[in-house]
């Protein structure tokens, strides 16, 4: 006898919602469930919606940075307007494409590492991908907090570079008026909220790899730093 497809879909949605709730409140339970049932679609949809939303809200600030840089280079007004239109397209496409590419790349790397270290053969790419997507919901929430603070506490006209858009208090504040944007961007990630993200990553690695807390924490830090490095390379 064939099962009820509507019932199966309902269970899938229920599991997906439970995973999202647990990644915030009880990460170990979420990762344990993802280890056996790697459902990631709903989490990915939510991540993408938030990513596009923050890109839309922050674009006026990005536009301000572009205006300043292009005017300093003596770019004609018409060319600046064209550049802003192109930039808007790339920002919105990038807000979707960049995270997805990152999820795929880091998941492939972690899958290869899992094979090399002879970690549970039952853990496939799809399991690791689901875990990465769910853990990244924490990072997108942190981005939402930063975006809200940016809108409330900064005027568009005061933004001179990408580091000025980092509002959550971090180590970058210790450098004051430094013009090293890459260093400021890197240090901005050393803030209290990212400890939450690191903790969730650590729990995920412990659940999936079955290793001790110290090794799991080291793995989480490496993944986190790789993600930061990707942004720092392209920031200007």
Note down, in words, how this protein is organized.
The chain has helices at 5-25, 27-36, 41-72, 77-116, 125-153, 181-188, 192-209, 213-234. By secondary structure, it is mainly α. It has one domain (9-19, 28-234). Helix 3 packs across helix 5 and helix 7 crosses helix 8. The longest helix is centred in the middle third of the chain and has 40 residues, at 77-116. It is elongated and about 60 Å long. The termini are far apart. Residues 1-5 have low confidence and may be disordered.
In short:
By secondary structure, the chain is an all-alpha fold. It has helices spanning 5-25, 27-36, 41-72, 77-116, 125-153, 181-188, 192-209, 213-234.
Task: Give keywords.
disordered N terminus; 0% strand; 8 helices; mainly alpha; 236 residues
Largest sheet: none
Number of helices: 8
What would you report as the Rg, rounded to the nearest angstrom? 20 Å
Give the % helix. Answer: over 70%
Q: Which H/E pattern describes the elements? A: HHHHHHHH
> What's the pLDDT, averaged over the residues?
91
The CA-CA distance between the termini, in Å, is: 61 Å
Principal-axis shape? elongated
Count of strand segments: 0
Poorly predicted parts? 1-5
Portion in strands: under 5%
User: Could you say which structural class the secondary elements and strand pairing correspond to?
Assistant: mainly alpha
Total number of domains: 1
């Amino acid at each position: 006898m064939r099962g009820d497809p509507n019932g199966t879909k309902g269970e899938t949605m229920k599991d997906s919602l439970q995973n999202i709730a647990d990644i915030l409140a009880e990460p170990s339970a979420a990762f344990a469930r993802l280890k056996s049932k790697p459902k990631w679609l709903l989490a990915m949809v939510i991540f993408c919606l938030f990513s596009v939303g923050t890109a839309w809200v922050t674009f006026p600030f990005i536009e301000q940075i572009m205006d300043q840089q292009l005017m300093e280079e003596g770019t004609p007004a018409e060319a600046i307007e064209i550049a802003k239109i192109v930039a808007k397209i790339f920002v919105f496409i990038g807000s979707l494409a960049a995270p997805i590419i990152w999820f795929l790349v880091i998941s492939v790397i972690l899958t290869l590492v899992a094979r090399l270290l002879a970690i549970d053969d039952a853990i496939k790419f799809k399991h690791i991908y689901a875990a990465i997507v769910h853990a990244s919901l924490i990072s997108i929430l942190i981005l939402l907090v930063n975006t809200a603070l940016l809108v409330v506490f900064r005027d568009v006209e005061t933004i001179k570079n990408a580091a000025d858009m980092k509002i959550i208090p971090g180590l970058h504040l210790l450098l004051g008026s430094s013009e090293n944007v890459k260093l400021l961007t890197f240090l901005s990630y050393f803030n209290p909220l990212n400890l939450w993200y690191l903790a969730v990553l650590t729990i995920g690695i412990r659940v999936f790899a079955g290793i001790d807390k110290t090794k799991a924490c080291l793995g989480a830090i490496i993944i986190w730093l790789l993600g930061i490095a990707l942004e720092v390379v392209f920031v200007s």
